[in-house]
Amino acid sequence: MRHSRQRLAALGLASMALLAGCSLAPGSHMTYQSDTAPIDELVSIEPITPGLVSSWQQAPAGHPMSDELNVALAAYEYRVGPGDVLSIIVYDHPELTNPGGTDRSAAEVGNRVQADGTFFYPYIGRVSAEGKTVDEIRRELTRRLAAFITEPQIEVGVAAYNAKKVYLSGEVSEPKTLPITSVPLTLVDAISQVGSANPGANWHSIYLNRNGRQEQISLYELMRNGDMRQNRLLQPGDILHVPSAENQAVAVMGQVIRPGNIPLGNERLTLTDALARSGGINEISANASGIFVVRGNDPSSDKLATVYQLDVRNAASFTLGSRFVLEPQDVVYVTTAPIARWNRVISLLLPSIRLPGVASDSITDTRDL
Question: Concatenated DSSP letters for 119-135?
């Protein structure tokens, strides 16, 4: 992972050099040779424009629950499994209702479903329960007891839910298993039952693992913005993992007052926020047209990364930066002037660039060069 991030940063920085060289020296021809990869084929260049940031803006409005989840909740029925304990009441027949006496709970004296999916009941013997609803079990008991009891009146419930569970792990108040019961268990319900996610949790990317497949869900959008489309009906065997936010950071490098890492936490920062937290750009050495954000692309993309460029020679352009929301592991870089100096040292900088955490070292290296 560390090597891939190093490679991404190196390629991104090289692309910034090529972009800045073209934008600041029109018509110039660079005659030096480099052994680096053809960066222009590996990255996409995007200027940060009003149209770009507007296309990313989303109204902070909640969204209703999906039709799929509504249908699933309406059709939900709990089906009994091995390990469940059934509570069976036969009215007017206390010897069948509570043979262990009244001093013990229904979970202690109830009928436990065995590993083969059946339980034993007086008079009628083994009764199949696995995969059936309590109403289906009640009807079978009524039919079979009718041979011994006149018009039996029976009620069946689950005294202890032991058969089906979901697992919560990671940055939650109390990692634990939660039983699947007759009441449908949604993602919101599960998180609420363990006391919500910890402050150090990554609310933007939690993971639902089901049958060998993983789905990424934004708990932030669900809990903070009311986007109920993120909610899910949990199923037996689901694993819900809430990761830590320790890797939720951006690296700010180049001609800023305090280069380094900025943790994002659960609140997203804008480009302007990141520059401000780094002490602002160095007005003596920074190139106002060379503020770049290097962002890795999806592995399925033909391009390794996208490089976004912000030109703040007009100070009003900082308003665009205040609308450009950074993502975890973005690299913000402010180039130095003159750009020709950067072009000369880029081939020496690429093998030694390191991030995150040592951004200030790389700046010193460049100055030494």
Answer: EEETTTEEEE-TT--HH
CATH assignment, 2-59+247-368:
3.10.560.10
- Model confidence pTM above 0.70: no
CATH number of 85-160: 3.30.1950.10
Distance CA 25, CA 29 (A): 9
Where in the chain are the domains? 2-59+247-368, 67-76+163-242, 85-160
Domain 67-76+163-242, what fold?
Outer membrane lipoprotein wza fold like (3.10.560)
Q: Taking the CB of residue 351, how many other CB atoms lie within 10 A of it?
A: 10
Q: Which residues are 263's β-sheet partners? A: 249
What integer pLDDT is reported at residue 316 of this predicted model? 76
Nearest Cα residue to 278 out of 298, 263, 262, 293: 262
Among 92-101, 175-184, 321-330, top mean pLDDT goes to: 175-184
Question: Residues 77, 79, 85, 91: is their CA dihedral positive or negative?
Answer: positive
DSSP class of 297: P
